[in-house]
Design a protein that fits this description.
Structural class: mainly alpha
CATH architecture of the largest domain: Orthogonal Bundle
Shape: elongated
Oligomer: single chain
Number of domains: 2
CATH topology of the largest domain: Cyclin A, domain 1
Order of helices and strands: HHHHHHEEH
Helix content: 55-70%
Length: 181
C-alpha cells in the first residue's frame, strides 16, 4: 500500500462528526442490502484442523492460510459453509505446493464435501487471482456526497469514458425513437 499521510481527527470536531454520520449511514445501507444477516463462519479454524488430520507440511499450511484470507475478498463465505471453503483452499494449496492428498477414498468425503463444491471454490479463487491488482482510490466529499479525487491524467480518462457512455446513450435514444416512428 502507498505511504499516505495519516490524518488525525479531533473526535469533538465537526469533520469527525460528519464522517462518523456518513460511515454509519453507509454501514446501515450495507446491512439492509445483506438483509441484516452478518454472521459468517470463517474457514480458518476448520482448515487448520483438517490440515492437521491430513498431516500437511507447513508450507502447504501457510499457502492454505493465505488462500483462506484471500477467499474473504469473494462471496465464498456467504455462498458455502465454512467446511466447504476450508476443503477448497486445502485442495488449491495442495495443487500449488505439489502435495498429494489421499484419493482412495477421496479425502474430501471425510469432511462431508463434494468435488463439485471444491472445484467451485477453486474456480472463484482462480478468478480472483486473474483480476488486476486493486488500486488505492482517494475519495473526497463534495456537496454532501462522496466522489473520487482525480489527478489530471485520471480525470481525462474518466471524462472520456463519460463522454463515450453519453454518446452511446444518445445513439440508443435515437434508435429507440426511430423504431417507434
Amino acid at each position: 500500500m502507498e505511504n499516505l499521510p495519516t490524518e488525525l481527527f479531533d473526535v469533538s470536531s465537526k469533520k469527525y462528526s460528519e464522517l462518523e454520520t456518513d460511515l454509519k449511514r453507509c454501514e446501515l445501507q450495507v446491512l439492509k442490502e445483506m438483509g441484516y444477516i452478518c454472521h459468517v463462519e470463517l474457514p480458518h479454524k476448520l482448515m487448520t484442523v483438517y490440515l492437521g488430520i491430513l498431516q500437511a507440511p507447513s508450507h502447504m499450511t501457510q499457502e492454505a492460510w493465505n488462500l483462506a484470507n484471500d477467499s474473504l475478498r469473494t462471496t465464498l463465505c456467504v455462498r458455502f459453509k465454512s467446511y466447504v471453503v476450508a476443503c477448497g483452499v486445502i485442495y488449491a494449496a495442495a495443487r500449488r505446493c505439489y502435495v498429494p492428498l489421499p484419493e482412495n477414498p477421496p479425502w474430501w468425503k471425510a469432511f462431508e464435501t463434494s468435488k463439485k463444491e471444491i472445484d467451485e471454490v477453486c474456480r472463484v479463487l482462480a478468478h480472483l487471482y486473474s483480476l488486476p491488482k486493486p488500486q488505492y482510490v482517494h475519495v473526497c466529499k463534495e456537496d454532501g456526497s462522496f466522489t473520487m479525487c482525480l489527478n489530471d491524467a485520471n480525470a481525462m480518462k474518466v471524462s472520456s469514458i463519460i463522454r463515450e457512455i453519453k454518446a452511446e446513450s444518445v445513439s440508443e435514444d435515437i434508435e429507440e425513437r426511430t423504431e417507434r416512428e
